[in-house]
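ok so heres the complex, two chains, lmk if somethin looks off
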Amino acid sequence: EVQLVESGGDLVQPGGSLRLSCSASGFTFSVYVMYWVRQAPGKGLEYVSDISSNGGGRNYADSVKGRFTISRDNSKNTLYLQMSSLRAEDTAVYYCVKGNSNELGSWGQGTLVTVSS
Amino acid sequence: QTEVTQEPSLTVSPGGTVTLTCASSTGAVTSGFYPNWFQKKPGQAPRALIYSTKNKQSWTPARFSGSLLGGKAALTLSGVQPEDEAEYYCLLYYGGAQPWVFGGGTKLTVL
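and the predicted structre for the whole thing:
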């Protein structure tokens, strides 16, 4: 059974930094594209970033480009999202998603990031 | 700025059929946009339903189907159940540096 468990969400001040982690199990992590998707309170889903199976290819939403960095450690079956220069509008539940180049499949339960002073 | 548009809300009776659509500001949606559909209920993680226009996830009920309709991606629910009441999101692929864009979601009410 595919399991994706996000962690690292917290209350952080504007301008601060945070690193999210996603621990994966139940599948061969190293062969899948992985995604981060977020949902702000009362808003819709928003694509944040994705990373290729070997980590060589990375893409970002314009709203986070230059501030967020996606990475993965295939030896630890773990996906990361390093977030810096955080803004109030980054407040959201962040989901880790397993996928392919044409598909977002299994989702984790999410971790809440709150940016507020 | 690319926009993906969905109906804000739809209402359907139990046992009925409803079609949700997903349009692109760039023009007609084709299979090359790899349309994905997701179901989101309050307090739960989103659940993937359809990928690449019409392919179902292993857990997707048979009453859900995906297609292209009139230049849009479409999700049809046939024989709607009360538990289908949820928000539904489409996702389209544009490639480039920001490859994926979600639609704004359709709130489906079963009444």
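quick notes: The mean pLDDT of chain A is 97. thats all i got rn
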